[in-house]
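Sequence only, no structure available. Ideas?
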Amino acid sequence: MDRHDWNERYRTKELVWTGEANRFVVAETADLPPGRMLDLAAGEGRNAVWFAERGWQATAVDFSDVAMAKAKELAAARGVSLTAEVADVTTYRPAAGVYDLALICYLQVPADDRKAVVANAAEALAPGGTLLVVAHDRSNLDGGWGGPSSPDVQATPGEVRALVEAAGLIVTKAEVVERPVETPDGPRVAFDHVVVGRRS
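Reply:
I predicted one. Tokens follow.
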């Protein structure tokens, strides 16, 4: 989907996704002390706003201007401040060495774009900073629920781990995780992966 398609999808009055932070983002970062965070492909800003509510300086980046407008509205409704930038994260170059956390959550793009985004996110980290990648896993194609249907925009934790290590970070987690989903046909399971890297 291109920027126009995503703008049309986000144009609904309601949030396309829930207003609550992703469960894996919460689990992996709840104990981190507040600092500066960067949310790449932030969508409507639910994760960035969650961090802002916890005292983080949050920057959300997405190529959909409609999504970024909704992210600012969500932040205002929650009484927090959020920096929202409209940019294509596959070419966006954040400031280097300044963020304590960089988040890439459900960015499903081809391998070359994935490599560029991970490398730029890693470069943005300050010493001791954390990179968290959460995405639909390729194994989801074989019986999991939801997510994109093309293997070209899916990866495995091993593939993402290699990108994170190539970017100079120490990987502390790289695994497939199950995400229960309630559907009209009853409960299903989606297969995601979670990869965590840290700048030494």
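The chain has one domain: 3-198.
Hope that gets you unstuck.
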